[in-house]
Design goal:
By secondary structure, this protein is mainly α. The protein is built from 17 helices and two strands. The termini are far apart.
């Protein structure tokens, strides 16, 4: 069986497996969504049942109250009629109190760096070619082994195919069961809607009844509640600001919308990088056909395969931030600590994109170097080459402003609060710039792909992969096109101050309401800073008991001092030996360096002699460097005319070399020891200065110790006085509690007596009413 057929079967199996995996994930997500919907519906039904029961109880209580009131009204009407006949001149109306009024040279150095980089790249290319040859030989051996093993894998593939068929059948059965459950849930939803409509009607009826009761209660409050500080606006601004729930609800809604946009952006970016990895494995070299990838494309595919580990934490961190929001707590930049985690995950993704950029650019350059690349296609590739760094620069800009915005929730922020508006405006500008850059990349990539598909070497696999990359870029453009206007349209809300308002704003005459006093905002800031300080972790320290024990052992035990002194002496001896070895090896290195230079000169001279021998010329051995410098012109002529082949010349040259070597060695040793002496003198001066400094510090510490002991005595005295005050306060607390308990008992007895008096008065009134009725009946007769 040919290797191409096996590869095609592998590809088909991989495609079928990918399809089934995507279907499985979609079905799993649908099941989870339906379960969540069912749970929400059951909870809503339970809440509706509870509200209905509550409304029914209220209705029953209201009907009972109405019956009592009707009876009471009839009785009072009768009394009023009887009292009107007898006492016409004694009725007076109660005086109602008035309502309360509410109130964010150089060219040369660059050229040298480029030359060094080119030398390094040439060395890498040479090494990579050697490695490539070795890899080709090993791959040929491996190919023969794989062709032998291909027959064995066919049976395994058949079994896998059967397993996949069984899995498909199982998934179809689960799909049918889910459809049945879906129909059942739809019927439940209809029933719940009908019940909700019925509850809505009942709610309207109850609302009418409660509105009348509300009017009565507001009247009672206006008549009975005397203390209200919203009458004067200059006093109202000193009230503690209350929590604006509308601001919190809007903030949570906007963060939820942003979560959807960020999820779309993350999925689009993940698709783009995944399809880019598939394309790098296909073009310009198809790895599936056995052709090896270039080192740049191999490393690029390796990095592109890691995109999910950098993209998924972004969405997860923002989702956890959204889930942590509550309606009973106000969310501001100072309290939104979840943005810090989101900023860190986004910063890691930007670093990943910066690491990916040079390999993408090198891959495009390799595509331009292919023989089938035309001039127009190369121009399109270079346009894409120029637009990719813009994407990385825009993402880093967004990362900088996002980190500044997230730093507002840290206690160690370095920017004032007035700069937050500028950070948000620059963030909006960065999102618009990201949309434009992605649009430009999509345009360049589309034109590049259209030219590549016209090439005779373009395969169907490459075309489908390019279409997937283009569709992912289009999805990114549309997502950023929604995200940027969303952020810009709500920029005013993001820049606005926290959602606080003053109590009694709705009762004031002015439409805007009074502004809180600056004292209130100052107190709020001080409270937030105090709470943030309380939340700081305690610094790591040694426990008090262990510190005392260590101090005792250091002060009392002389054995530990002797042991430390012995360890110090041994360590110093080791350091001296190591320094001597260091000096020895430094001298050896310098001598080897001198020998290396001489040997290089000799090699160059031998190369010149070898070239002359190969050219057929008479060899004129070059004399040593010192001899050529000191010889006269006549001597040089004689040296050049005669051929030196005797052993005496060689021995004389070797003796001269050894003498020059000994001289240079003496000079190096002298220079080394003079430098060592100067270094030791500087170290001695530093040690003397440190000793003086430590002596002065010890004196200062001794003085501080004396002051600390005095402060300790003072604090002990204050502690005793504080304990005495605490005892006095406890005694006062017991006396005040006993007084309050006695007062409460007296008040309760007074209320009981007042209730008794009220009952007696009611009895007397009832008796008078009965007597009045009897007298009326007697007169009528």
């Amino acid at each position: 069986m040919a290797s191409g057929d096996i590869q095609n079967k592998y590809q088909r199996l991989a495609q079928e497996y990918a399809k089934m995996k995507s279907q499985h994930s979609v079905l799993k997500k649908a099941v989870i969504d339906e379960q969540s919907k069912v749970a929400e519906l059951t909870e809503s039904v339970k809440l509706k049942d509870l509200s209905i029961r509550k409304f029914e109880q209220e209705i029953d209580s209201l009907t009972f109250r109405n019956q009592q009131l009707a009876k009471r009204v009839t009785v009072l009407q009768d009394e009023l009629d009887s009292a009107a006949v007898k006492k016409k001149n004694k009725t007076k109306g109660p005086v109602e109190p008035a309502p309360v009024v509410a109130d964010t040279s150089v060219f040369g150095e660059d050229l040298q760096k480029k030359i060094q980089e080119n030398e390094r790249l040439h060395m890498q290319v040479h090494q990579e070619t050697e490695e490539h040859r070795q890899v080709v030989a090993s791959l040929q051996v491996r190919l023969e082994q794989l062709e032998k093993e291909a027959g064995q894998h066919q049976s395994v593939l058949d079994s896998i195919h059967l397993n996949h068929k069984a899995l498909v059948d199982k998934l179809q059965q689960e799909k049918a069961m889910l459809e049945v459950k879906l129909q059942k849930q739809e019927t439940d939803v209809r029933d719940s809607k009908r019940i909700a409509d019925h509850c809505q009607q009942q709610l309207k009826r109850v609302h009418v009844d409660l509105s009348s009761r509300l009017d009565d209660s507001t009247k009672v409050i206006q008549e009975k509640v005397i203390f209200n500080d919203t009458k004067y606006q200059e006093l109202n601004v000193l009230n503690v600001p209350t929590h604006d729930r509308k601001h919190q609800v809007k903030a949570k809604d906007l963060i939820g919308q942003a979560l959807g946009y960020i999820g779309d952006l993350v999925s689009g970016m993940s698709n783009y990088l995944t399809y880019a990895e598939q394309r790098s494995q296909i073009f310009p070299m198809d790895s599936s056909t056995g052709e090896p990838l270039s080192p740049v494309n191999r490393r690029l595919c390796q990095y592109l395969h890691e995109n999910a580990s950098h993209l998924r934490p972004i969405e997860q961190s923002f989702r956890s931030f959204h889930e942590g929001l509550r309606e009973d707590a106000l969310t501001t930049l100072e309290t939104a600590t979840g943005i810090q985690d989101f900023s860190e995950k986004f910063h890691s993704f930007v670093a990943y994109m910066e690491k990916l950029l040079p390999y993408q650019l090198r891959s495009l350059e390799e595509e331009c170097a292919v023989s089938t690349c035309s001039a127009t296609l190369e121009a399109r590739n270079m346009e894409l080459h120029a637009s990719l760094p813009k994407l990385t620069a825009t993402l880093s800009k967004l990362d900088n402003y996002l980190s500044l915005i997230a730093a507002a929730s840290k206690s160690s922020r370095e920017h004032p609060r007035t700069n937050q508006a500028a950070f948000f405006t620059q963030m909006a500008a960065g999102l618009n710039q990201l949309h434009e850059v992605l649009k430009e990349i999509s345009k360049h990539y589309n034109t590049k792909v259209s030219l590549e598909h016209q090439l005779p070497t373009a395969t169907q696999k490459l075309k489908t992969t390019d279409e997937c990359v283009v569709s992912s870029l289009v999805a990114l453009v549309s997502c950023t096109g929604k995200l940027a206007p969303f952020f810009s349209s709500h920029l005013e809300f993001f820049v606005s101050r926290a959602g606080y308002r003053t109590r009694g704003v709705s009762l004031c005459r002015d439409t805007d309401g009074p502004v809180s006093s600056p004292v209130v905002t100052d107190l709020r800031d001080r409270a937030t800073s105090y709470v943030s300080r309380l939340k700081r972790p305690c610094p790591e320290s040694v426990p008090y008991k262990t510190a005392v024990l260590n101090r005792r052992t250091l002060l009392s035990s002389t054995e530990s001092r002797e042991g430390l002194a012995q360890q110090l002496t041994t360590a110093q001896e080791k350091m001296r030996g190591l320094e001597q070895e260091k000096e020895h090896w430094m001298l050896e290195a310098q001598l080897l360096q001198v020998r290396l230079e001489k040997e290089t000169k000799r090699v160059s001279q031998l190369e010149v002699e070898l070239r002359q021998l190969q050219a057929g010329q008479v060899v004129t051995p070059a004399p040593p460097v010192e001899a050529t410098q000191t010889a006269s012109p006549g001597d040089r002529k004689s040296v050049g005319s005669d051929v030196e082949t005797s052993l005496l010349g060689k021995l004389e040259s070797s003796i001269a070399d050894e003498s020059s070597e000994s001289e240079t060695r003496e000079q190096l040793i002298k220079a080394h020891f003079t430098g060592r002496v100067t270094e030791l003198t500087t170290q001695l001066q530093l040690a003397d200065s440190k000793a003086v400094n430590f002596h002065s510090e010890c004196r200062a510490l001794q003085q501080r110790l004396g002051l600390a002991e005095k402060a300790k005595e003072k604090f002990q005295e204050e502690l005793q006085t504080a304990q005495q005050k605490i005892a006095q306060l406890q005694d006062e607390l017991t006396t005040t509690t006993s007084n309050y308990e006695s007062q409460l008992s007296m008040m309760s007895e007074h209320l009981c007596s007042m209730n008794d008096k009220l009952t007696q008065q009611r009895d007397e009134i009832d008796a008078l009413k009965l007597s009045n009725k009897g007298s009326k009946k007697g007169k009528g007769r």
